[in-house]
Amino acid sequence: MSHVFPRHTAKAPPVCVGGEGCYLIDSAGKRYLDASGGAAVSCLGHGDRGVIDAVKAQLDRVAFAHTGFFTSEPAEALADLLIAHAPEGLDRVYLVSGGSEATEAAIKLARQYFVERGEPQRGRLIARQQSYHGNTIGALSAGGNEWRRRQFGPLLLDVSHIAPCYEYRLREDGENAEAYGRRAADALEEELLRVGPETVMAFMAEPVVGATAGAVPPAPGYFRRIREICDRYGILLILDEVMCGMGRTGTLFACEQDGVAPDILCIAKGLGAGYQPIGAMLCSGEIYGAIRDGSGFFQHGHTYLGHPAAAAAGHAVVKALIERDLVARSASQGAALRAALEARFGQHPHVGDIRGRGLFLGLELVADRASKAPFEPGERLAARLKAAAFEAGLICYPMSGTIDGRSGDHVLLAPPFIIADAEIAELVDKLEGALSVALGA
Ligand code: PMP
Question: Gene Ontology terms, cellular component aspect (predicted)?
Fold first, then answer.
């Protein structure tokens, strides 16, 4: 019997005992191709010596020194490296232990910023229906994933959720992508005017939507328009790149491709690449300056923030991404994987859309291609696909589309950037086989 919480399954999951490159290995010796990097985490693959050695070396020096008293060499080096490559205007780094901590801190930072500026009426957040920002109460409030939110109702913050930017289902016939992007972004202005812009502190969004919708990129111009609206009404733009950041989409930060810089940027997952739990919140000099010149202290903090071993991992990961040119590899192998998916599934009767950027790709599964009708939730297609793939030795990330009534089942692919051409071929073969099993074909 396992005493490990939280998951209860009739059959205990296999015990993972090893990892090599793009593969995980269980105690029976079975190898699994990690085609989703867990959940877009393992960007360097498993067993990366450079990161392991960096963590070990830091543990040999000192494992922990509380940030209430000290900073550390790896935390300083990581922050310097991130700021050197960050979107314009981002100037300070707050190191945390994961994605939810980063988004939670971002919400609190936005709030404190406006309180310190003498605008305490700005307390409302606007986010999107098709989004996931984490599982702590503030982050869960920001997310629009109904299934995850449902039972926590009375505790959640009052957040407005506008329609997502989701071309596959929401762009109208005859509407071009730019016009749709503008219309989708204008939903933010409409909501601001509805609730009163002076009551709003920030808009929060994932540049490329991950877990709730399977790598949905924004329409062209969407985020430029969002940025304009935020500026016009004096609200902050918080971008959540916990999943899509750190080279996943083919640029170090996903928002680079949209030509915008946020006021606050959240990253995690690929930052530690699975070697240590770490996330970060980057903020503008303007926000930092307001707090420095006000109370002088961001009223937040967890014991493990800025953990030296985690920071050493993060620093080694970012260095590897840059020095080994792995972000460009995410773009080029992403193009190769996308081409292979299009060749194999482009005409598949149950694949409605193939989308994403870099090595952050999604397939939307539909009962009927022409009408885009999703599968009935009761069919649990995503769960069956996940099980069939796992059985075949493929780890992918399918999700059921019952979230907001707007998406069908989908599968997210986010393999390590080191994925080889032969492994791309194996991925596509195994996915095709698993989909046939799941569809009962
Ligand atoms: N934001 C996004 C966009 C995410 O995808 C996730 C995790 N799936 C989170 C936040 C929360 O991150 P964590 O699970 O590390 O708390």
Answer: cytosol
Closest ligand 1 atom to 100 CA:
16
Query: Which residues are near ligand 1 (CB < 6 Å)?
Result: 39, 98-100, 103, 132-134, 206, 210-211, 240, 242-243, 268
Q: Give the separation between CA 133 and CA 212, rounded to whole angstroms.
A: 10
**Residues counted in the chain:** 441
Q: Which atom of ligand 1 is nearest to the CA of 134?
A: 11
What spacing in Å lies between the alpha carbon of 103 and ligand 1's midpoint?
8
Looking up tokens 């913050």 gives 157
What ipTM describes this predicted complex?
0.99
What is the rounded distance in angstroms from the CA atom of residue 391 to the CA atom of residue 253? Answer: 34
* Helices and strands in the chain: count of H runs, count of E runs: 14, 15
Give the helix/strand (H/E) hosting 192: helix 177-195
CA of 99 relative to ligand 1 center, distance in Å: 4
Instruction: Pick the closest to residue 250 from 184, 361, 329 (CA basis).
Output: 329
**Phi, psi (rounded to 5 degrees) for 136:** -75, 165
pLDDT digits (tens, 9 = 90+) for 245-254: 999 999 999 9
pLDDT digits (tens, 9 = 90+) for 388-416: 999 999 999 988 865 455 567 999 999 99
- In order of start, what are the domains of the chain with their CATH numbers? 16-47+325-439 (3.90.1150.10), 51-323 (3.40.640.10)
Comparing CA positions, the residue from 326, 408, 333, 318 lying closest to residue 365 is 408
Q: What distance in angstroms lies between residue 369's CA and the mean position of ligand 1's atoms?
A: 30
